[in-house]
Specification:
20 helices, Aldehyde Oxidoreductase, domain 4, about 725 residues, 7-stranded mixed β-sheet, alpha+beta, single chain, 3 domains
């Protein structure tokens, strides 16, 4: 079977937007149509393709091949900027497409021989690679022009996609055929920052126009000839399996074509999603729960609290914290509880699969190709190169599509295999599937103790964490550090920057909790930043010292932490009184600073609290040091989005279990923040000559502790479990 690339349409979204535009008198949208340009480029022969990341057609269009998934974080724009900068291309002539699954050519340099997007590495690991790709292409175009014009290459100039020498001019497209015949240079000289024209400047995002005009291709937009849609009935408890099922009523529903059993449940295949859902709802399934997990959230936390009373595996040790804590003096103790959290991306999981003779092709928002491709190949008995993955846009992920065992991709392929049909299959998870069928940010319990010296500074610090390991027993087990400690469980705690003479960090990772867990935007720092930054704030309060000055005194060996802390405090007006709120309300300001994924972020939150404990987050001031900035608008957008994401979790986020079953199912009981809850957000970027570091995740960790510290400043009450409960803040 020839797996040719089909036409992908999004008629409903496009028609909706067209109607909306026609209805809005006088409204004009100026949009760039990448689809039309792509068709022209595809017809251009020959194409100039000097490396895996750049392709230039005779029409002059520059196609940047992105090895990183675009899921809203701005990867396509950032990577295209790096290429266009060194190529001296006009921004309007640059388009981006996702790379195929090929770890040999498209491996993530931060992960080794592995193709995947995650850990806020897209720009950081591509900083030089993509610039060199653009510089190599430029050098070859210049060489082609020099040969044609018989002039020294050093006398040729390139700007906005035009190659010039005196009065002579040529476009990239005109030079592409000749450049394609030249050898790729072994070494190229990259620009110095003072010559940047695009890096560090505003450039419109490359994915925005397609998302406005409906041409952006998400998995849900896929429509292949003869395609069936599959919806799966998953077990109500983790570890349960299908004992038996009756599909007679499901098959009687109009549009339902087939019902098949797969390892994860029972799939209903239909001509459309709604028919598949109705068929699934009509199934009668008897589940075998003999090996199912049946503990509830309270029982899990009770076990965690018991474990926290005992020493765990040591992940960091300096001095003798146990001895120092045993000495007479002031000692503060606090415990914290953090619930399971769902990823809850706007686009639930989905995948399109078509199995042919000796080959398989998939379309979806592919985040971990080096996990998915070999997993599918093993299931079908194929060589990995016979599994073709087409990377489409993803409507968010927050870590969920970075599956450590290719769970949802394998589920789609299992459905296609079990159906014994040559029809392409689109597997669709509904919101309820996404919420109840795993995976989750692990639940954690923290226990902290600190001893204070006469000057009010901590002399000893002991931190015990209890929670499931994300990587244990997976292909990522290499991320375990000494004694089997999961590094992501203790990040932000084991590397605490504060200058404390004696420190000990310990971890318990219970292996018998069967709730599926996975990385969640900013991973371990989601809980370690909260416990450490609220605890240090409480120590400052006990010492009767200003929270900013207290932190700065402990950060003398960490200038980048101190830098963002000072900037955020200054921009927020720290030390100046807050304007009074309405009668009967209390106002407060709180701060937090944290480093994650190589970037440093400090945030100041301002709140207004009513007598009944309800509150508003009025303003969040952020300072960011993420090295050299490729696109400041993308940095600001990611930090603003991180604030909203973190605020949703702080105010509402909790996945709870009762008898092993997840209680939440959709946005009515796992609510994102509403527009009225979103504060004013200011983002201030620290100028830097350092190489770029991550930005997709670092804006998340400081928000919740800054908020909790602001609430404590307003009410005098410390919040030690999330989400925040207003009844704890009553006057």
């Amino acid at each position: 079977m020839n797996l040719t690339t089909p036409r992908i349409e999004n008629g409903s979204r496009r028609d909706f937007l067209r109607s909306a535009v026609q209805a809005a008198a006088g409204l004009t949208l100026a949009v760039y149509l990448p689809g039309a340009q792509a068709a022209t480029a595809a017809a251009s022969t020959p194409e100039f393709e000097p490396n895996a990341f750049v392709r230039i057609g005779t029409d002059g269009m520059v196609t940047v091949i992105s090895k990183h998934l675009e899921m809203g974080q701005g990867a396509y724009t950032g990577l295209a900027t790096l290429v266009a900068e060194e190529l001296d291309a006009a921004w309007s002539q640059v388009r981006v497409e996702g790379a195929p699954a090929d770890a040999r050519r498209y491996n993530n340099l931060a992960f080794g021989p592995f193709q995947g997007t995650g850990g806020s590495t897209a720009i950081a690991n591509s900083w030089e690679q993509m610039r060199k790709a653009g510089a190599s292409a430029r050098a070859m175009l210049v060489s082609a022009a020099a040969a044609q014009w018989k002039v020294p290459a050093g006398d040729i100039r390139v700007s906005e996609g035009i190659v010039t020498h005196g009065a002579r001019k040529a476009t990239f497209g005109e030079l592409a055929p000749a450049a394609a015949m030249l050898p790729v240079p072994a070494n190229v000289v990259l620009k110095s920052p003072e010559h940047f024209k695009l890096i560090g400047k505003h450039a419109p995002r490359k994915d925005s126009a397609g998302k406005v005009n409906g041409r952006a291709q998400f998995t849900q937009d896929m429509h292949l000839p003869g395609m069936l849609t599959a919806v799966v009935a998953h077990a109500p408890r983790f570890g349960a399996t299908v004992k038996s099922f009756d599909a007679s009523k499901a098959k009687a529903i109009k549009g339902v074509v087939n019902v098949v059993q797969i390892p994860t449940g029972v799939a209903v295949l239909a001509q459309d999603t709604w028919s598949a859902k109705k068929g699934r709802d009509a199934l009668k399934i008897v589940w075998d729960e003999s090996r199912a997990f049946k503990l509830g959230s309270e029982e899990i936390f009770a076990r965690y609290r018991t474990l926290a009373q005992q020493p765990g595996l040591v992940t960091h040790s300096a001095g003798d914290a146990d001895a120092a804590l045993a000495l007479p003096g002031r000692v503060l103790r606090a415990t914290y509880d953090f619930p399971y959290l769902a990823h809850a991306a706007m686009e639930p999981l989905n995948c399109v699969v078509r199995i042919g003779e000796g080959e398989c092709e998939l379309w979806y928002g592919a985040q971990f190709q080096s996990i998915d491709q070999p997993s599918v190949a093993a299931l079908l008995g194929l060589a990995p190169e016979k599994v073709k993955i087409n990377m489409l846009y993803a409507g968010g992920s927050f870590g969920r599509r970075a599956s450590k065992d290719a769970d949802f991709v394998l589920e789609a392929v299992q459905i296609a295999k079990a159906s014994k049909s040559r029809a392409p299959i689109k597997m669709v998870w509904l919101r309820e599937d996404d919420m109840r069928a795993g995976y989750y940010r692990p639940a954690f319990h923290h226990a902290l103790e600190a001893a204070l010296g006469e000057d009010g500074r901590p002399t000893a610090w002991r931190h015990r964490l209890v929670g499931q390991s994300i990587v244990a027993g997976t292909v990522f087990a290499g991320m375990m550090i000494k004694d089997g400690v999961d590094a992501v469980s203790v990040e932000g705690a084991a590397n605490l920057p504060y200058g404390i003479p004696s420190m000990r960090v310990e971890l318990h990772s219970p292996a018998d909790i069967q709730v599926p867990v996975l990385w969640w935007r900013s991973v371990g720092s989601t809980h370690t930043a909260y416990s450490t930054e609220t605890f240090i704030d409480e120590l400052a309060s006990i010492a009767k010292q200003d929270p900013v000055a207290y932190r700065l005194a402990l950060l003398d060996k960490h200038p980048r932490h101190a830098g963002v802390l000072k900037l955020a405090a200054d921009k927020a007006g720290w030390g100046q009184p807050l304007p009074a709120g309405a009668q009967g309300t209390r106002r407060g300001r709180g701060i937090a600073v944290h480093e994650s994924f190589g970037s440093y972020v400090a945030q100041v939150a301002e709140v207004t609290v009513s007598a009944d404990g309800s509150f508003t987050v009025d303003r969040v001031t952020c300072a960011v040091d993420c090295g050299m900035v490729v696109n400041p608008d993308v940095v600001r957008a990611q930090v603003e989005g991180g604030v909203g994401f973190a605020l949703s979790a702080a105010l509402h986020g909790a996945i709870t279990l009762k008898d092993g079953a997840v209680e939440q199912s959709n946005f009515h009981d796992y609510a994102p923040i509403r527009i009225t809850e979103m504060p004013k957000v200011e983002v201030h970027i620290v100028p830097s000559a350092e190489k770029p570091t991550g930005i997709g995740e670092p804006g998340v960790p400081p928000l919740a502790p800054a908020l909790a510290n602001a609430l404590a400043a307003a009410t005098g009450k410390r919040v030690r479990s999330l989400p925040i409960r207003t009844e704890e803040l009553k006057a």
